[in-house]
Amino acid sequence: MTAPLKGMVGSSSRDARAAKARAGRKPFGLTGLLLRIGLMVLWATTFSGAVAGQVTVSVQPDPVFIEIRGTEQRVNFDLLLHNAGPHALRINKIQVSVYDSLGALAYRRYLDENGRPSGIATLPNRIVPASGWLDVFNPFYAFAGEMPLARLQYEVFLESPDEPEPNLLNFTSKAQVEFTPQPYAGKTDLKLPLQGRLYVFDGHDFYAHHRRQNVVHGPRLTRNSVRFAYDFMITNGLGELYHGDRFEKRNWYSYGAPIFAPAAGVVADVQDGIQENSYHAQRMAYPVLPEGLDPGGMGNHVVIDHLNGEFSFLLHLCTGSVTVTKGEHVERGQRLGAIGLSGDTFVPHLHYTVLDGPAYTGNGLPSYFSRFGRVLGTKSVWIQRGQVDSGDLLENSFDE
Question: What is the CA angle 329-334-336, rounded to 5?
Fold first, then answer.
């Protein structure tokens, strides 16, 4: 008798045990089959019901404005995702489609999980929590000047967070939103509110902190009132912002620099009695203020109503420097105060923005400035009217 091959020892006993187990197993039967199918359907319904039709996307602000920078069209808004289901989801793709006025596709682009790191990994958070919201800063924020922005469609594809990346073709759910962005040329003929050589320390481009404000606070949604804001500073001819010890506020060229009305209007609000911040042990020290005195961190400020639905907000002024009163009519170029270190700030600068109302919780509006120079190295280009943003070096004068 031939000896069994190595690895086959005991195979006959295993077969016998398997046959015995099969013999003792009850037939599945129709009832068991229906029960198993029912459980599978229940599982599928439970999961798909948590995502299909329960994830919605909207935009903020509404309407979305088109801001013009040279020949570039910019759309500064957030995608707000709401997940009404009991399961968290992960965004694995965002796609934008641009259509012209006749409905024809003009452009399409997407971010997905392809690549290491992937393009969509540039989003700081992609998990839409169960029964919750997620604020996504629109990643497709700029289009060429010739692009017909008659209709924009944003599609957001989602999957289970347990799904390994990349999942390039499959998705569990999809939400989309369509809208027509509105050009906004501005109603007020604005001048830059500072004189001399200026630096836009932070504007509202895609990377600016004004732009990157999360409007989701638990179950509550707020507005981004600084969506189109600027932080203006004074600089010398070398682009330096201070001399000597930077922890001495008077060493900053901006500190004490005069602030001027960017356009005519009526003073809607003014504050001049807020104690300034100070530097202590190379850190910013904020004074303890009476409760409710400065809840928005505006510091000393002036708000001008331009009487056309636009309001200029000028913040972080020097204590005791404000020269106007509430209800006073001001002219373009009239001195309002001086740059200080009051409110929510760590360096002396002028925070400036245009809103659609007199409250600092309003919606931001695009703003354009007239008759200034854009510094480009050793030369300066005269701008009759245009947009400014983060990183710009500018020259401005009220002696026209």
Answer: 85
Contact, 232 vs 349, CB < 8 A?
A: yes
Residue pair 77/152 in contact (Cβ under 8 Å)? The answer is: no
Closest C-alpha among 389, 385, 351 to residue 368: 385
The amino acid occupying position 170 is N
Residue whose entry in the numeric block shows the structure tokens 């808004």:
77
Are 315 and 294 in contact by the 8 Å Cβ rule? The answer is no
d(CA 337, CA 301): 9
CA distance 213 to 225: 9
Tens of each residue's pLDDT in the chain, 400 residues: 333 333 333 333 444 444 444 444 444 454 443 444 343 333 333 333 334 458 999 999 999 999 999 999 999 999 999 999 999 999 999 999 999 999 999 999 999 999 999 999 999 999 999 999 999 999 999 999 999 999 999 999 999 999 999 989 999 999 999 999 999 999 999 999 999 999 999 999 999 999 999 999 988 899 999 999 999 999 999 999 999 999 999 999 999 999 999 999 999 999 999 999 999 999 999 999 999 999 999 999 999 999 999 999 999 999 999 999 999 999 999 999 999 999 999 999 999 999 999 999 999 999 999 999 999 999 999 999 999 999 999 999 988 6
Q: Can you read off the two tokens belonging to residue 100?
A: 């012209």
